[in-house]
Specification:
Keywords: Hydrolase, Magnesium, Metal-binding, Transcription, Transcription antitermination, Transcription regulation. It comes from Arenimonas composti TR7-09 = DSM 18010. The chain is about 35% helix and about 30% strand. With about 270 residues, the protein is α+β, with helices and mostly antiparallel strands. The chain folds into two domains: about 5-140, Fructose-1,6-Bisphosphatase, subunit A, domain 1 (Fructose-1,6-Bisphosphatase, Chain A, domain 1); about 150-265, D-Maltodextrin-Binding Protein, domain 2 (3-Layer(aba) Sandwich). An eight-stranded mixed β-sheet has the order 4-3-5-6-7-8-9-10, sandwiched between helices. A five-stranded mixed β-sheet has the order 12-11-13-15-14, with helices on both faces. The protein has a two-stranded antiparallel ribbon with strand order 1-2.
């Protein structure tokens, strides 16, 4: 791996520090104060807020002039470069004692992700990428999978939970895709799913009603591992547009066609 930039070093340090605090909090789940955001299935805890404060402090020390966007605290500053942070992606997994959750830290410039870190503390997997420098997992360079057809592919997706829209559309997508793929997966954490596409463990992933902090690091991880990132509608990716589809590239058109046909069946 090439020598990381100062920004990437700060991102890694921030993610690791937040992850350490989160692992300590997960060992005392019974004592955590938990509340809902938009509904009973959309949860947040003091652990999320502490983790964001940790990440923010590290990043501000490195580049105090950069803007900041965090899931818990919102936006601050208006510089062309912006930190985008999800301090605890997969909160429900975390609060139920599961291992599939992570810390997302990205750096965007004029709406394009130029560096990303996904740290999965329970799995001890650190994913990093910078534009033009490749994607890496624990120091090993990543490459998306070579599988070229849907029938041999394993796909992952985000399933809309209570309070989310598009349940009928998702059901139609599943009807189509389970019949033409090798398998469907759902981890409950966008950070995990997108990192797994970059690592070649999944062949593609899509989800709607996302935020930029859910997807930002995963976008550059997949791209730098040789994959493709677009909107779930097949259009150019809009980091703030609320939906994403990433893949190894070889199956991208075929997947988007199935998603398009499912949308037309309404």
């Amino acid at each position: 791996m090439q020598t990381p930039s100062r920004e990437l070093e700060a991102m890694v340090a921030a993610a690791r520090a937040a992850g350490a605090g989160l692992r300590a909090r997960q060992r005392e789940l019974h004592a955590l104060a938990v509340r809902s955001k938009s509904g009973p299935a959309d949860l947040v805890s003091i652990a999320d807020e502490e983790a964001e404060a940790t990440v923010r402090a590290h990043l501000a020390a490195a580049r105090p002039d950069y803007a900041f966007l965090g899931e818990e605290g919102g936006a601050e500053g208006n510089g062309e470069r912006q930190w985008i942070v999800d301090p605890l992606d997969g909160t429900t997994n975390f609060l139920f004692g599961g291992p599939l959750w992570g810390v997302n830290v990205a750096l965007a410039e004029a709406g394009r992700v130029i560096a990303g870190v996904t740290w999965l503390p329970a799995l001890e997997e650190l994913y990093v990428a910078e534009a033009g420098r490749g994607a890496w997992l624990n120091g090993r360079r990543l490459q998306v999978s070579p599988r070229a057809t849907l029938v041999e592919a394993v796909l992952s997706c985000g399933i809309p939970f209570h309070g989310k829209p598009d349940h009928p559309l998702f059901a139609r997508e599943m009807t189509r895709l389970t019949a033409v793929t090798a398998g469907m997966r759902r981890t409950g954490a966008c950070s995990v799913d997108m990192a797994f596409v970059a690592a070649g463990r999944w062949d593609a992933y899509w989800e709607r009603t996302l935020n930029s902090w859910d997807m930002a690091p995963g976008v550059i991880l997949v791209q730098e591992a040789g994959g493709i990132a677009t909107g779930a509608d097949g259009g150019p990716l809009d980091l703030y547009g609320g939906h994403v589809c990433v893949s190894n590239g070889a199956i991208h058109a075929a997947l988007l066609e199935q998603l398009r046909l499912a949308a037309q069946e309404d």
